[in-house]
UniProtKB/TrEMBL annotation:
Coiled coil: none annotated. It comes from Spirosoma rhododendri. It holds the Pfam family HTH_26. The lineage of its organism: Bacteria, Pseudomonadati, Bacteroidota, Cytophagia, Cytophagales. It comes from the Bacteria. This is Helix-turn-helix transcriptional regulator. Gene3D superfamilies: lambda repressor-like DNA-binding domains. InterPro entries: Cro/C1-type_HTH (IPR001387), Lambda_DNA-bd_dom_sf (IPR010982).
Amino acid sequence: MPIIVNLDVMMAKRKMSLNELSEKVDLTLANLSILKTGKAKAVRFSTLEAICNALDCQPGDILEFRQTDG
């Protein structure tokens, strides 16, 4: 998928654990883990907003588009 989720990178920059972020955004560890590992097929704007608020970042810091060949 050409959309890359850089949640793990932002969490590392902010030195925030998955558990801590889960509590701050009120999202289950399982769902946050799916997003973190890039297995999510969609993300709600409200979830993205909560994550950006918790990590003090922009949506572009979390999501990245990479052109694929072909």
